Amino acid sequence: MAVSETTAAPPLPAHPDPQLDAILTGPLPHELSYAIGGPFHLLLPDRFDANAAAFPAVLDEFGVEGRVYYAKKANKAAVWIEQCALSGTGVDVASAGELRDALGHGVRGENVVITGPAKAESLLRVAVLQDCLIAVDALDELERVIAQAQTAARAARVLLRRLPPAQPHSRFGLDEKELACALSRCAEAGEAVVMEGFSFHLSGYDTQARAELAGELVDLCLKARALGLRADRISIGGGFAVDYTAAEHWEHFLEEQRPDHYHAGKSFTASDFYPYHSPVAGPDALRAILTTNALAGRLREAGVMLLLEPGRALLDRAGCTVFRVQGVKDRPGYGVVTVNGSSLSLSEQWFNSEYLPDPVLLPAHEPQGEPYAACVGGATCLESDMVTWRKVRFPTRPAAGDLLVYPNTAGYQMDSNESPFHELPLPPKVVLDTAGGTTRWRFDRHPLA
């Protein structure tokens, strides 16, 4: 059954990736699929290393002292933390489990920042003992940090998290009145607290808004120093966009996509989607932040370090997800492909959205036939278990045994929402090591995998 141009959704291919293409066109994906018997994730640690090195390079370019912390929530794999331990990259954690995992894989406590609201007492205790940097989110939390420090007879390293004035309904941070109280309390606490500076949690990817709020934190550091506090660093969090696809593809998709491009007439608006094309992304976004309002110069002049907590941006092109086709049904004008996994392995469904970079078909045999449009469903008994709602244009009709590869899924997609529903095993993570010009694979060693 041939597909008309109007049946399939507008194409949205990921940026070309010759290194990954060379791996995918070889026998390895099919061999792993046969051995594992279910979906799996491929991880590329060399990409993570390159991304993690690119941010400090920008700081050096501007002569700004700073530190990068990998936001661990973006992916649970152990390999990223192992790479952080080797390179000295910091790690951003928000739970006792994440902290144990970071410390257990060799990351020094002094290289860990603790974020998240209303932190558990067990987390604060270990954070103080291990000399971690704690982003304090509330006044009562500050009191609990001070108590832990006094009990342990160790100084607690803290940042005070500022409620963004432009996002007053955010549940994160201290407003102006609370911030004033927190500063006074830090000064009163004496040796129990080292108040190292300020941080914020700002939703979205607007570089100007992030730079402007960073400038306010620089001013706050100068005011805090007048109280005798150290205040020599600020954290601007993450929010560094990833550019998944070319501008022309993204713009065409948003203009043309409509309900009949989706299974069951599902509808999405542009605001439902992550911005899969960003003209300023990753390290370039940091460059834009540093040039806005001469922020780099203000940081240098004030002697303030810039802390960053990127997650998705450090995982750009660092992994993909592979499903095996189990069956195909023909429907009027398109087909329904069922794969050996579920939508829980691509976590955009968690946000009632759709992961948009097009899956790539890897046929098990020589492809035959004409282009074919199909949505992709999971192997569960739920109507809503759609890995891909839209009707993707494939070069030929998929068949049982073929593989579907979803590109660039390491950032927030692989394991944010996975569940062994129907007793389906969680997809394992396969690490591809490319040192020495050869590609070797191993399973990730995460204790929960």
User: Remind me, CATH topology of the largest domain?
Assistant: TIM Barrel
- By CATH, the architecture of the largest domain is named Alpha-Beta Barrel
What structural class do you assign from the helix and strand content? alpha/beta
User: How many structural domains can be distinguished in the coordinates?
Assistant: 2
Q: Main beta sheet, described?
A: 9 strands, mixed
Please state the average pLDDT score: 94
The percent range for strand residues is 15-25%
Order of helices and strands: HHEHEHEHEHEHEHEHEHHHEEEEEEEEE
The CATH top-level class label of the largest domain? Alpha Beta
What percent of residues adopt helix (DSSP H or I)? 25-40%
Unreliable stretches, pLDDT < 50, 5 or more residues?
Answer: none
CATH superfamily of the largest domain: Alanine racemase
Helix count, DSSP H or I runs of 4 or more residues: 12
Radius of gyration: 24 Å
Report the strand count: 17
